[in-house]
Each structure stands twice: as C-alpha cells, then as structure tokens.
Write a structure and sequence with these properties.
With 118 residues, the chain is mainly alpha-helical. Helix content is 61%, strand content 5%. The protein has helices spanning 4-7, 21-28, 32-41, 59-74, 79-89, 95-117; strands at 48-50, 54-56. A hairpin with a 3-residue loop joins strand 1 (48-50) and strand 2 (54-56). The relative contact order is 0.16.
C-alpha cells in the first residue's frame, strides 16, 4: 500500500464516518476532478452517492485513494498498472495498511490523552 515515507506528507484522517469530495481532496492532496476520474477507472473506489449526486467517501475509500495516489504519483504506475496492482492486492491482507491504521489510531489516542491530561 502506501510506503511509510509517503504517509508523512499526507494529513491524518479524522475519525469521521463520511467525508465530502472536498475533504478527501485535501486529505489525499488530489483535485476533485481527479477523484471523479479515478471512480470511473478503479472499481474498488465507489463512494456513497446521495441526493443531488453528492459523493460521500468512507475511511476505506480514503485509504484506497491514498494507495492509488501512491501507485500513480510515487511509484510511477500507469492507470492500467495501478488497477492490476490493486486487484492483485485485494486477495491478500496488506501489512502496510494495517500499520497505517495503527499509526493513525495511535496518533488519535495520543491527542485524546493530551486533552485528558489538561
């Protein structure tokens, strides 16, 4: 998934259930029109659409977008290559994704601890 070095440049994912396309754009450092294009190209990416065709992404969608971003921008894959890589990784559990989630949870828990100590 994401290389550990690439995680530092992206902001942490807040503990929300749904994110708007604008929020995901900022969290993943990708423009909204690119996100809409990726929805067409990657079947793993399917945000919930509500009234007025508004997109609402879940945490898992944000992680997939970050993975796609890493494959395309950092590792130099083409769209087709990234699609194949994602489909190949779907069958097995990715340790770096687990590490990213654990790192994110640890950061959030440390923030809560700081608030509680005040």
């Amino acid at each position: 998934m994401l290389e550990p070095g690439n995680n530092n440049e992206l902001p942490p994912i807040p503990g929300k259930r749904y994110f708007t396309i604008g929020e995901v754009s900022e969290l993943c450092m990708v423009k909204p029109h690119v996100l809409r294009y990726w929805e067409q190209e990657f079947e793993e990416l399917s945000p919930v659409k509500r009234r007025g065709n508004r997109r609402y992404y879940q945490r898992q969608d944000v992680l997939v977008i970050r993975q796609i971003r890493s494959l395309l921008y950092d590792q130099g894959f083409t769209i087709g290559g990234a699609r194949g890589r994602l489909q190949g990784e779907e069958a097995r559990v990715d340790a770096t994704q687990t590490q990213q989630v654990v790192r994110q949870l640890r950061t959030e828990l440390e923030d809560i601890l700081k608030i509680l100590r005040r």
